[in-house]
Amino acid sequence: MLTAEHVTFGYRAGAPRVVDDVSLTIAAGSMVGILGPNGSGKTTLLKMLSGTLTPSTGQVVFGGRPLAGWPRRDVARRIAMVPQETHAPFDFTVLDIVLMGRFPHLGTFALEGPADLAIAQQALASTGMSAFEGRPFATLSGGEKQRVVIASALAQSPELLLLDEPTASLDLGHQLDVQLLLTKLNRDSGVTMVLSTHDLNLAAALCRDLVLLRAGRVIAQGPTEDVLTPEAVRALYGVDADVARHPIAGHMTVTPLGRVP
Amino acid sequence: MPPIRTRLVLTLTGFGLVLAATILTGPLIGSTHISLGRVFDRTIAFADNADAQIFFIARLPRVLAGALVGAALAAAGVVFQALLRNPLATPDTLGVSSGAALGAMLAITLHINLTMFGISSIPVASFAGSIGALGIVYALASARRRGLSTIVLLLAGVTMTAFFQALILFTQYLADFADTFRTVRWLMGTLDVGSYTPILAALPIVLAAFAMLATLPRSLDLISLGADAAAARGVDVVAAERLALASASLATGAAVSLAGPVGFIGLVVPHLVRLIVGSDHRLVLPASALFGASFLIVCDAVARTVWPSGELPVGIVTALIGGPFFLWLLVRR
């Protein structure tokens, strides 16, 4: 569905590359996690996959066509992105925010009709936020905001959903809510997902495939069971860890044991 | 909440009716009493109808100038607030109206007395000043990187404003007493345009700016959530920001060149309108333009009548009404 071919990005000419010669393939229906320490280039890579940032070299190909040169609206009808945090300086309601997801499907002067409203309300329902429809977005908690922004991305009716650290700054309960929501969306609605995260256990629980990123380069990628190893955790974070399949949850878990001397 | 279509119709109708009422009643207010019935009495020839003459020749130009300036400044305020993701932004935050003021100061002090198509040199110089200011801010922000960085734009605007203010003071320092008096009066803002000609000169610029802004409200909604969020929803952020910056600055430049720097309209009106229609820019933008027009007409009616020994500059009235009102808005929540 989506491939990145040797993509590289540096914010200024001569500056160190934030993403360096990354190639990866996202299959339709898959759920891929991008793991890496702070500053490893996860967000920059996601932005290039979403087409909002053009690679310095290399290209991103979606459905057989290079993303560069697509009008933004065309891209946004197929690919949606959920940023790490969304801050609204004005008093938008939850429904206002979700309806904005219909932007790429509407002409310049078109207003949302009943069909768009139905899609937005469906998106709110699937994120469990229907009851919050009329609430001011600014008054929601971090977890509620995140779910509203995911609903807004779903209202774009995308084939591919990119999420930048969707559970950062959420408490355990809200983390689990988002995790279950993403699993359900991927399984029931067939939305392909790529998410970046710091949370190794979340990635292990959610993603069938992982991409490990260090200093802008891919150090490993493949099925979660193969890639998530003590050696990989040590290489990524400089941490000795025990990696084992959890007897009840059924997925891999990572327990940090100590700093690599 | 009713669908957007219904809310848009209600908003346009409501604020449109308010504006129609203020435009009709505005010219009735003044030292000489006139009656609306007599003004539109077709049985009296215009040459013999003193009421119609006062209405159409003496007062209506001033009311229409107020409508045009109020609409332009309020709409520009909305756009700058969304563009800079900052509810405190005004049409002057980026230095556009200071640039316009400097242009006018130079024209007055250097006695540039060219009259083009019946337009005096002061508004022409003032408009040129606003375009110059926009050009500088825009170049600075673009040079930084390809897109317009919000924080760079804000800092550049604040710096440009301070710089232009210093040049304005310098110009006044060099000017003789009579010129200084004229420049100080100009800086207070007045709608005393005298005829329809200056309005007709500013009108096409404001209309062109509004036509460009009409394509932008949904993009402004998304841009206010952040450039990345907007791009991810399909907004061509760089193009939209450039169009918004250019059209809001054009509207501001046209307004300031017509009436001088009338303050507070661009700040107070959008906030007041948001209390009524919410934050959707498809409603806020037209409602602010319509209500800004009404607001300035009312402020000017106050300016013309409240002081027993003559007229107050309308800029003083908008600031005296707008300042305390805005403070009340801020502490109300």
SSE topology:
The complex is a heterodimer of chains A (261) and B (333).
Chain A: E1 2-9, E2 19-26, E3 31-35, H1 42-50, E4 57-62, E5 65-66, H2 72-78, E6 79-82, H3 94-99, H4 114-126, H5 142-154, E7 160-164, H6 172-189, E8 192-197, H7 200-206, E9 209-214, E10 217-223, H8 224-227, H9 230-237, E11 239-245, E12 252-259
Parallel strand pairs in A: 3-8, 3-9, 6-7, 7-8
Antiparallel strand pairs in A: 1-2, 1-4, 4-5, 9-10, 11-12
Helix pairs in contact in A: 4-5
Chain B: H1 4-25, H2 36-39, H3 50-83, H4 96-109, H5 121-144, H6 150-174, H7 177-188, H8 197-213, H9 217-223, H10 227-232, H11 237-259, H12 265-277, H13 281-305, H14 314-332
Helix pairs in contact in B: 1-13, 3-8, 3-11, 3-12, 3-13, 4-5, 4-6, 4-7, 4-11, 5-6, 5-11, 8-11, 9-13, 12-13, 12-14, 13-14
Major protein interface = A-B, 41 and 31 residues
* Estimated radius of gyration of chain A: 19 Å
What oligomeric assembly is this protein in? heterodimer
Largest beta-sheet details of chain B? none
Indicate the structural class of chain A: alpha/beta
What series of H and E elements makes up the topology of chain A?
Answer: EEEHEEHEHHHEHEHEEHHEE
Number of strands of chain A: 12
Strands side by side in the biggest sheet of chain A: 6-7-8-3-9-10
Characterize the overall form of chain A: globular
Q: Residue share in helices of chain A?
A: 25-40%
What's the alpha carbon Rg of chain B, rounded to whole Å?
20 Å
Order of H and E elements of chain B? HHHHHHHHHHHHHH
Secondary-structure content class of chain B? mainly alpha
Folded structure, characterized:
The complex is a heterodimer of chains A (261) and B (333). With 261 residues, chain A is α/β, with parallel strands linked by helices. Chain A has helices at 42-50, 72-78, 94-99, 114-126, 142-154, 172-189, 200-206, 224-227, 230-237, and strands spanning 2-9, 19-26, 31-35, 57-62, 65-66, 79-82, 160-164, 192-197, 209-214, 217-223, 239-245, 252-259. Chain A is built from nine helices and twelve strands. Chain A has a six-stranded mixed β-sheet, sandwiched between helices. In chain A, strands 2-1-4-5 form a four-stranded antiparallel β-sheet, with helices on one face. In chain A, helix 4 (114-126) crosses helix 5. Chain A is globular. Chain B is an all-alpha fold and 333 residues long. Chain B has helices at 4-25, 36-39, 50-83, 96-109, 121-144, 150-174, 177-188, 197-213, 217-223, 227-232, 237-259, 265-277, 281-305, 314-332. Chain A binds chain B through residues 47, 50, 52, 71-73, 75-77, 80-83, 86-93, 95-97, 99-101, 103-104, 106, 108-109, 111-114, 117, 134, 152-153, 156, and chain B through 1, 3-5, 8, 81-82, 85-87, 214-215, 218, 221-222, 224-226, 228-229, 231-236, 274, 278-280, 282.
